[in-house]
Amino acid sequence: MVASLPVARGRLVANASALFAIWLLAAAFSAPSMAATYTWTNTNGNGLWSDGGNWLPNFTGTPVGPLDLVFPDGSGNGINDLATGTVIKTMDFTSTAEVHGFTNSSPGDPAANTMDIGSGGLITSASANDQYVYFRLNLVNALEANVTGAGRLLLGNFSGSSDLTKTGAGTLNLAGIYPDDGYASFTGNVNVQAGTVYLGQPTNGVLTNMPNSTITSAAGTTLSGGLVFAKKIVAGGVVETGYLDTDNTGQMIGALSTSDLQLLSTSTTLFDINAAQTSSPPNLSNTAIVLTSTSGAATLDYGGQVSVEFANSNVYSIGTTWDLFAAGTGTTVDRTGGLAGFSTAGVGPYSGLTFTKIDPGTGSGDAIWQSGWAGSTDTKLVFNESTGQLVVVPEPSTMVFAGIGVMMSGWSLLCRHRRAKAGRRAAATMPLAI
Fold this sequence. Notes:
18-stranded mixed beta sheet; elongated; 11-stranded parallel beta sheet; 2 helices; mainly beta
């Protein structure tokens, strides 16, 4: 019995070696069964991601996650019909990639074919063409979007609790294609470290809701928002809101809303007065940053520069008011800090005006800025930090703004100013020179 043990052991080793060789041979002629890099070709022409014949390496079967996907050229649009929960680790739109658009297999169901982001999640685009990813990405792990090409990367729908970080000098558009069931299920934060991020899809007219998210943008970046609500925005770069206008500045339609806005000293907030705004008063809802909260309390910490761009040559009547930093319905705004500068740009009589503080306030969000004379209009512009309003006032206006309690022609410019000193109250009772 003892003498037979080496023989039995030898047979076991031989059998194991034979089985391993058979497995290697079978694996060589079957679909990949482990994580691999798949390059999109759409060779079979049906656009289906589940068809291994549409990928390189070309095979019969379905790609198996975690997936590293490469899109090198104009191989066409596609349909993500992979099983919900399939893990995507990376997507790479190379410098040669033409326009790609990828939807899920059931456009009426925004959660269909949801892909989980794997550890080290990264989407890159070096292409000069726009790339559209419309199916849902579930950020179970953090995702970096690195856009270095001239084309935009558009992410239409995502969920999850991990953070999204934007890097690269290019543009990321968080489009909100499914706003009723997309962003509301996203509880992570958005960190803009470089380039430009557009928030919202204004053409569908529905608010994109990110009620649990903080959006942070670094100095040198651009954050452009329309019809978007985020819990908190900490802006170190450019913040744009207003119309998507024809002068190529790229502002989005509608208001950017938050319950907590912090404008850092490196920030510049841009408001756009569009050529389409010909009524008097203008369509203010498309201009403002709205401070709103279900609790009834919101905060605004002023900082940096504000610039208002006029994309038209209209002459607005005295008393016309733009609510730049507006309080939402039922919301009281606690305004602190102070702006370092205020200016106007664009075209028409209100462009290129120089503003000075005629009342420096306490440094707690209550200073008043007044422009120079707006040419032949016989008017000036005045911005009040304590109300967030920009108002057209008559020239000369020095006496008007010597009195803090002034109420005139429905103006609300100064009625809520916090620093109504006794001497100014007295001056407010004097006859006004208009």
